[in-house]
Write a structure and sequence with these properties.
Elements: E1 28-33, E2 46-48, H1 51-58, H2 63-73, E3 84-89, E4 100-102, E5 117-123, E6 129-134, H3 141-148, H4 151-155, E7 158-163, E8 170-175, E9 185-188, E10 195-196, E11 207-209, H5 218-225, E12 233-236, H6 242-252, E13 258-263, H7 266-270, H8 272-278, E14 284-288, H9 293-307, H10 337-346, E15 349-350, H11 368-390, H12 400-419, H13 437-447, E16 449-453, H14 461-465, E17 472-476
Parallel strand pairs: 1-3, 1-12, 5-10, 12-13, 13-14, 14-15
Antiparallel strand pairs: 2-3, 4-8, 5-6, 5-9, 7-8, 9-11, 16-17
């Protein structure tokens, strides 16, 4: 007698768990080098867990090995945060590169509603002038890119590249790569006719220069490699000119990366380092060691090895760099009180002798740990939000319940950063609050963070149709760090 299939009554579907993105490795340190690898088939980069392997590829007398040794000698070092060292040789005969400006932050193209946009720019040494663009079609990324690349823009030798979603688009402006040596320059000013588009594209006041055929610039090496290998920190085996360092710092400021550079020239403290501080380039950490240019590079490598060592999944693992000793680095015997004060004013970290060599940090350009931990928090929030949306087998309803689930994903990251010591309960002293002010303040006092989202009921029809979540706001109380102390003593006979 034939038996009927049980699926007539009970139907079971097996669903495999969906895989999300892994967290960005915030302890991955990249060393960009002019040294040539011993093996001609080395490739674009190498990944290392110890210094001897670097010596095998570059030679034990190479600066690349010496810097790797400094980074790996620290305890803890990037391996403590489950990181590694990536060595990226700069191309000795790189192709010529056009001047390239990258917007400092994503742009909501739907907010560019004027019909008479102008870009004021000087291109390749020509006189600065207003260049007509007109209206921006924000119906799609391709439409926006087409409207930005007006006839006047392309005739001036420029081109816009637009990527990402319309409401958070990434903007790149570059010179047209024509001829054998497209080394043009771009300097963006303020339009005097029509509506100035530069602020709306987050390129106001930006400038850039191209590169001729020859040794690859660090900026171009980053552009070449950042899509193929992930790294968070950047060090160099050579010093950059003030012009190249300024442009490199401006570029790194647009990325979720930190550049660590060292100098032995005291004129750099009040010169290029003060300039970078004034421009707000906090992603570039400037170090000074007066003994020699080599010691300054060693300082940067040791500092980065020690700095990028936080395991953000641990408990009380967050640290600052202030008063930390570095293994294998000689104290800066040339540090005077005057130089020390200049470093403090310019936001430059140094390695003076207080009876022993320790890093002395300056918060004039924020502290290293503030930049490092905030960038780590940012990228972990991005991945948590993406994974919550991507790992559902159905859909996230555009309701308050759906929003609560999304906020719960962000809440797990906030809790992690309380556990590792980046955030801590405390008093909210800013006048800026969101949601119910009392709830905001009490959450900061009790938990160290607060999460709020605009009500679903208040969404515009266009946002709802586009399936965009209401804006979420997160406040965190920085745990800070104690770097110095004042003591008053009363003695009575």
């Amino acid at each position: 007698m034939a038996k009927l299939d049980l699926s007539n009554i009970i139907r079971v579907t097996l669903l495999a768990a969906l895989t999300g993105l892994a967290n960005v490795n915030t302890s991955a340190l990249a060393l960009f080098t002019k040294d040539v690898p011993i093996n001609p088939g080395y490739g674009s980069y190498g990944v290392y867990l110890d210094a001897p392997d670097v010596a095998a590829d570059f030679g034990s007398s190479s600066s690349t090995y010496m810097l790797a040794e400094q980074a790996f000698s620290q305890s803890p070092n990037m391996l403590s945060g489950n990181g590694y060292l990536i060595v990226i040789p700069r191309q000795a005969a790189a192709s010529a590169q056009p001047a390239t400006i990258i917007g400092s932050a994503p742009v909501d193209l739907t907010k560019l509603t004027a019909t008479n946009y102008e870009l004021h720019a000087a291109v390749d040494g020509a006189s600065a002038a207003d260049i007509s663009i007109g209206a921006i079609n924000s119906s799609s990324i391709s439409a926006a890119q087409t409207s930005l690349n007006s006839t006047a823009i392309t005739s001036a030798g420029l081109t816009f590249v637009v990527t990402g979603p319309v409401t958070a688009a990434s903007i790149t402006l570059k010179t047209l790569a024509t001829g054998a040596s497209p080394t043009a320059e771009i300097a963006v000013g303020t339009a005097t006719t029509g509506t100035d588009i530069a602020p709306g594209l987050n390129i106001a006041g930006a400038s850039a220069s191209g590169a001729a055929l020859g040794t690859e610039r660090v900026k171009d090496a980053i552009l070449r490699t950042m899509g193929s290998v992930a790294y968070f920190g950047i060090i160099l085996n050579d010093t950059e000119s003030s012009t190249d360092l300024t442009e490199l710092a401006a570029f790194v400021q647009t990325l979720d990366k930190i550049l660590v550079v060292g100098s032995s020239s005291s004129s750099d403290i009040t010169g290029i380092f003060t300039t970078l501080q004034g421009l707000g380039y906090t992603h570039t950490r400037c170090l000074f060691h007066s003994v020699s240019a080599t010691d300054a590079l060693y300082f940067a490598a040791a500092y980065a090895g020690r700095g990028f060592s936080i395991d953000f999944s641990g408990s009380n693992t967050a640290h600052s760099m202030n008063l930390k000793q570095l293994t294998g680095l000689d104290v800066d015997e040339g540090m005077t009180q005057a130089l020390y004060q200049e470093c403090q004013n310019a936001g430059v970290d140094c390695y003076p002798d207080f009876g022993l060599g320790v890093i002395q940090c300056s918060g004039a350009n924020l502290f290293f740990d503030q930049i490092y931990t905030r960038l780590a928090f940012k990228v972990q929030l991005q991945i948590a939000g993406f994974n919550y949306l991507a790992q559902t087998t159905t859909k996230i309803p555009q309701t308050e319940d759906g929003m609560n689930g999304l906020k719960s994903a962000y809440r797990q990251i906030c809790k992690k950063f309380v556990t590792n010591g980046v955030f801590a309960p405390g008093t909210w002293t800013s006048s800026q609050t969101f949601g119910d002010p009392e709830t905001h303040i009490s959450n900061i006092a009790q938990a160290g963070y607060y999460i709020y989202s605009d009500p679903i009921s208040g969404q515009s029809e266009s946002a709802r149709t586009a399936r965009i979540a209401p804006r979420i706001y997160i406040a965190g109380k920085d745990a800070g760090a104690i770097n110095s102390s004042d003591v008053t003593v009363y003695i009575e006979a």
